[in-house]
Design goal:
Strand order of the largest sheet: 1-2
Number of helices: 35
Structural class: mainly alpha
C-alpha cells in the first residue's frame, strides 16, 4: 500500500513539474504546450455551446425545433431542407476558396473562430426570438400555395435564417474542428488533444441537456418543444460563449509542415481536381452520405418523455445526464483503444456495436407502459432502464467517433498534402456539400415514413377528437388534453406531431425509426473496411513532408540551424536502421523489477522498454525516409526527371506547340499502360496525372493568352521583397513575445502594456503585408495556371538537385553540432 501511495505521489509530482516546465513550451517530440491545449479545449466549451444551438435550427428532415416547436410540417420541412442543401453547395465553395487561399500570420483557421462565431450567435438569438405566433396579425389572413399566409411567411423566415446559418455555422465549426489538424502534425498528439478537447467541451451538451427538461418542468408544463424554453436559455449562453471563443483565438498557434517560402495560391477547380484523387476522403465521405438513417432513432427518448409522458422533468434530466456522460467515458477510452488497435479497427468495431445496441432498443418500445394505470416494474421501469442502457452504450460508441473523426480527417489532409504538395483543407467541405445531395435524396425517406405511419395533420385531428387519448394521464402527472390545449393556446403553428400522443401511433413510429436506424448503421459501417491509412503510414508521410519542406527551404536559402539538425538526424538514423529488423519487446523485465521492489531497476527497465519500442517505430519509418531520399534513383523517379527535363528544355513557348488533340491522345495511351505490379500502378498513375496537367494548362493558355508564345514570366522582385519583410516581421514578433513573457514573469505591468501595444501594432502591419502578398500572388494567377507543367518541372528538377547536395548539408550540420547549438525537437 505504501509503495502505491509513493508511486501516486511521484506521478502527481511529475505531472505538476511537467505542467510548470511545459506550460509555454511543448514537451520533447510534441508541438503543443499545455497552455495551448487548455485554451483550445476550455475555449471549446463556448464553441460547442454555439454549435449545438445553431445546429438545432439548421434544416434537416427531422429537425425538432423547426418541426415540433415552430410547426413546419414534415414534408414541407423536407422541401426546405432540399433547398438549403442546394444553396449550401456554392456557400461551401466560397468557404473553401477563402480558407485554402488564406495567407495570414494568424493562420488558416484561428481568425474565423471569432469572425464567424459572433454572427453565428446573433443568428441563433434572432431565430428563436422571431414572433412566429404574430405572423397572422402582421401579414394578414389569406392563403398562398394553398397554405395560410402566416405559415408560408414562417417557412420563408426559417429558410432565410438557415441561409445565414449555413454559412456562419459551418465556417465557424469547421474552423475550430480543423484547427487541430494544423496545431500539430503528430497524429498521436492530435488524438490525445482531441480527447482532452472532447472531454472538456462535452460539458456543453451535458449542461444543456440537464437544463432543458428542468426549465421545461418549471415554465412550459414539461413541453420540451415550447419556444419560450429556447428564448430563455439560448441568448445568455450565446453571449457568454463568444468570450470563450476569443480564448481559443488568442492562445493557439498553427504549425503547418511546409517550406517558409511556400506560396499558397490555388483556385476552386484546381483544388477540386486534387481532392478528387484522395481515396481516403471518399471512404469517409461515403460512410457519411450512406449512413443517413442511423440517427433516426436519436430522438426516441425525447418522444417517450414528451408524448409518452413516461417520467417527470427531473427524472428525464437525470436520464439525459446519464446518457450524455457516456460520451465522457468513451472519449477517455478512445486514445487507449486507438493506441492498442489503431484507428481503423476502432472505427469498424464501434460502428458494428452501434448496430447491436440500436437493435436491442426494438423490443422495449412494445412493452413500455405510458399511463399511470399500471405501475408494474416489468413493463414500466425495466424497459426504460434497458432503453437507457442501450442509449448509454450507443453514446459510448459515438463518443469514439468524436475522437476518431477529427484525427482521421487530419490524417486525410496530411495525405492530401503528401500527394499534391498543397494544404487544401477547405475543398473537402465543398465536396462533402455536393455529396449532401445524396443525403437529401435519401433522407426524405424519414419524412415519408413519418407521413405514412401517422405523423400527419389528418391523424392528429383524429387524436384530438379522441376522448380516450385526450383524457390520458401520463406518468409525469400531466393530462394529454391539457398539454395539447396549452400548446394551441400558446400559438402552436400546426398540430401534426400531436398524433404522437396516441400511444399506439407512438409505439409504431418508435419501431419504424429504430428499424430505419438499424439499416442506416449497417450501411454506414461498410465503407470503413476500405480505410487503410495506418498510424505508421501517417507518421511516415509527415517525415516525408518535413524532408520536402527542408530541401525547398535549402534551395531558397532560408534554412535555420535547428531545422537542419532535425532533418539530418532523421535521415542519418533512417539510413542506419533501413536494414535492421525489429526486436522482440517484452515487459517481463519491468514486472521482475516490480516483484523485487527495486525502484531503480523498475525505472531502468521502463526506460529500456520505451527505447526498444521507439527504435522499432523508427525501423518501421525508415523506409519512408529513405524512399523519399532515393526517389529520383528508382524507375518512376527517372521517368519524372525525364519528363521534367523535356518540359523545361522546351520552355514556355514549347508548352503551346502541342495541340490539345495530341495531348488527349497521349492521355489515352497513358491509361493503357500496364498496372500489374505496384511499381507499374505508380508509373501509370503518374503518367495520367502528367498528361492531365498538360491538357489543363493548355486550356488556360488559350483562355488567358491565346498562345503560349505570349506568356511572360512575372517579375518576382516585388514578391521576394514582401517575403523578406515577412521574415523580418516574424523575427520581430518572436522578440516581442519573449519580451512579453519576461514582463509577465517579472509582473511589470508597464512593460506588459508596452509589449502588448507593440504586438498589436505588429499584427496590423502583418495584416497589411498579407494583403499586399495576396494581391501580388493574384496578379500571377494567369501565369501559374498556364505554365503549371513548366513550374512543376522546375520544382522537380530543383528538388532533385537539392537532394543531391545532402553531403554538403551534412558538413554544415557537423559544423553546427561542433558549436553545440541547442536544438529543440
Amino acid at each position: 500500500m505504501g509503495n502505491k501511495i509513493a508511486d501516486l505521489k511521484t506521478t502527481v509530482k511529475g505531472t505538476l513539474t511537467d505542467l510548470r516546465l511545459h506550460w509555454n513550451e511543448p514537451k520533447k517530440g510534441n508541438y503543443m504546450s499545455f497552455k495551448e491545449i487548455v485554451a483550445y479545449s476550455g475555449g471549446g466549451i463556448g464553441v460547442k455551446f454555439i454549435g449545438l444551438m445553431a445546429f438545432n435550427m439548421i434544416l434537416s428532415s427531422t429537425n425538432g425545433l423547426i418541426g415540433n416547436t415552430i410547426g413546419i410540417k414534415p414534408l414541407d420541412m423536407y422541401i426546405l431542407y432540399v433547398i438549403s442543401v442546394l444553396v449550401n453547395i456554392p456557400l461551401s465553395g466560397i468557404r473553401a476558396n477563402i480558407i485554402d487561399n488564406t495567407r495570414s500570420k494568424e493562420g488558416k483557421y484561428r481568425p474565423y473562430i471569432v469572425k464567424m462565431g459572433i454572427p453565428c450567435a446573433i443568428t441563433t438569438i434572432l431565430f428563436v426570438w422571431f414572433p412566429y405566433q404574430s405572423f397572422g396579425s402582421l401579414f394578414g389572413e389569406g392563403y398562398i400555395f394553398g397554405e395560410k399566409r402566416a405559415y408560408v411567411v414562417t417557412c420563408a423566415v426559417v429558410l432565410l435564417m438557415n441561409f445565414f446559418q449555413l454559412f456562419f455555422y459551418y465556417f465557424f465549426m469547421e474552423s475550430y474542428e480543423n484547427l487541430i489538424n494544423v496545431l500539430s502534425p503528430n497524429t498521436q498528439e492530435r488524438t490525445d488533444v482531441a480527447t482532452i478537447r472532447g472531454v472538456v467541451y462535452s460539458l456543453a451538451p451535458s449542461v444543456l441537456n440537464l437544463a432543458m427538461p428542468i426549465m421545461a418542468q418549471l415554465i412550459t408544463n414539461n413541453n420540451m418543444y415550447d419556444i419560450r424554453l429556447f428564448r430563455y436559455i439560448y441568448p445568455p449562453i450565446s453571449i457568454a460563449s463568444i468570450a470563450l471563443c476569443i480564448v481559443v483565438y488568442a492562445n493557439t498557434k498553427e504549425k503547418i509542415v511546409q517550406a517558409k517560402t511556400h506560396i499558397i495560391q490555388i483556385k476552386f477547380m484546381d483544388s477540386l481536381r486534387q481532392v478528387i484523387h484522395n481515396k481516403y476522403f471518399w471512404v469517409i465521405a461515403m460512410a457519411t452520405w450512406l449512413g443517413f438513417l442511423e440517427t433516426a432513432a436519436s430522438g426516441i427518448l425525447t418522444w417517450l418523455y414528451n408524448y409518452g409522458g413516461i417520467c417527470n422533468g427531473a427524472t428525464f434530466s437525470f436520464i439525459t445526464l446519464i446518457c450524455s456522460n457516456a460520451g465522457l467515458v468513451g472519449m477517455l477510452l478512445a486514445p487507449f483503444f486507438i493506441r492498442k488497435w489503431g484507428k481503423r479497427a476502432v472505427l469498424i468495431g464501434t460502428n458494428v456495436m452501434n448496430v447491436v445496441f440500436i437493435a436491442l432498443m426494438l423490443p422495449t418500445v412494445y412493452i413500455i407502459n405510458m399511463t399511470d394505470s399500471d405501475a408494474g416494474f416489468i413493463n414500466t421501469y425495466f424497459p426504460l432502464i434497458l432503453l437507457v442502457i442501450c442509449f448509454w452504450m450507443n453514446n459510448l460508441m459515438n463518443a469514439f467517433a468524436q475522437i476518431l473523426t477529427p484525427t482521421i480527417n487530419a490524417d486525410i489532409r496530411d495525405y492530401q498534402q503528401y500527394i499534391s504538395g498543397e494544404r487544401i483543407d477547405g475543398m473537402f467541405s465543398t465536396i462533402t456539400a455536393f455529396g449532401g445531395i445524396i443525403t437529401v435524396a435519401t433522407s426524405g425517406i424519414i419524412n415519408l415514413l413519418y407521413e405514412k405511419f401517422g405523423i400527419n395533420e389528418a391523424t392528429a385531428r383524429t387524436v384530438i377528437d379522441n376522448p380516450e387519448v385526450m383524457n390520458r394521464v401520463m406518468k409525469n402527472g400531466a393530462v394529454v388534453g391539457d398539454v395539447i390545449n396549452q400548446a394551441i393556446e400558446d400559438g402552436a403553428a400546426n398540430i401534426t406531431y400531436f398524433s404522437l400522443y396516441d400511444t399506439g401511433i407512438l409505439r409504431k413510429m418508435l419501431a419504424v425509426v429504430i428499424i430505419a436506424s438499424i439499416g442506416g448503421a449497417i450501411i454506414n459501417v461498410i465503407p470503413y473496411f476500405f480505410y487503410d491509412l495506418t498510424e505508421i503510414k501517417q507518421r511516415g508521410m509527415v517525415k516525408v513532408l518535413k524532408i520536402r519542406a527542408f530541401f525547398e527551404d535549402f534551395g531558397n536559402n532560408t534554412l535555420n540551424d535547428n531545422d537542419l539538425v532535425e532533418i539530418v538526424d532523421m535521415i542519418t538514423l533512417a539510413n542506419e536502421l533501413i536494414d535492421e529488423k525489429e526486436s522482440v519487446v517484452s515487459k517481463k523485465a519491468i514486472q521482475k523489477a516490480r516483484t523485487a521492489k527495486d525502484k531503480p531497476a523498475v525505472k531502468a527497465a521502463k526506460t529500456q522498454y520505451k527505447n526498444a519500442v521507439n527504435r522499432n517505430l523508427e525501423i518501421k519509418l525508415a523506409p519512408f525516409v529513405m524512399n523519399e531520399m532515393n526517389r529520383f534513383e528508382n524507375e518512376i523517379g527517372r521517368i519524372q526527371i525525364q519528363d521534367a527535363e523535356m518540359i523545361y528544355g522546351a520552355g514556355l513557348n514549347g508548352l503551346g506547340l502541342a495541340e490539345l488533340s495530341q495531348l488527349r491522345q497521349e492521355l489515352k495511351e497513358a491509361k493503357k499502360l500496364p498496372a500489374g505490379t505496384e511499381e507499374e500502378k505508380e508509373i501509370r498513375k503518374y503518367k495520367i496525372s502528367f498528361c492531365r496537367t498538360r491538357i489543363t494548362a493548355r486550356k488556360y493558355q488559350i483562355k488567358y493568352f491565346g498562345s503560349a508564345s505570349e506568356i511572360e514570366k512575372p517579375d518576382d522582385t516585388v514578391l521576394n521583397e514582401l517575403f523578406d519583410i515577412e521574415e523580418e516581421y516574424s523575427r520581430k514578433e518572436d522578440i516581442l513575445y519573449k519580451k512579453l513573457f519576461e514582463a509577465k514573469e517579472a509582473k511589470n505591468k508597464a512593460q506588459i502594456k508596452t509589449a502588448n501595444l507593440e504586438i498589436k501594432s505588429l499584427k496590423q502591419q502583418f495584416k497589411k503585408l498579407n494583403k499586399q502578398i495576396n494581391a501580388e500572388q493574384n496578379n500571377r494567377l494567369s501565369y501559374t495556371r498556364s505554365a503549371k507543367p513548366l513550374l512543376d518541372a522546375q520544382k522537380l528538377l530543383k528538388q532533385a538537385d537539392n537532394y543531391a547536395h545532402f553531403d554538403e548539408i551534412k558538413k554544415r550540420y557537423e559544423a553546427i553540432k561542433g558549436e553545440n547549438v541547442s536544438v529543440p525537437v
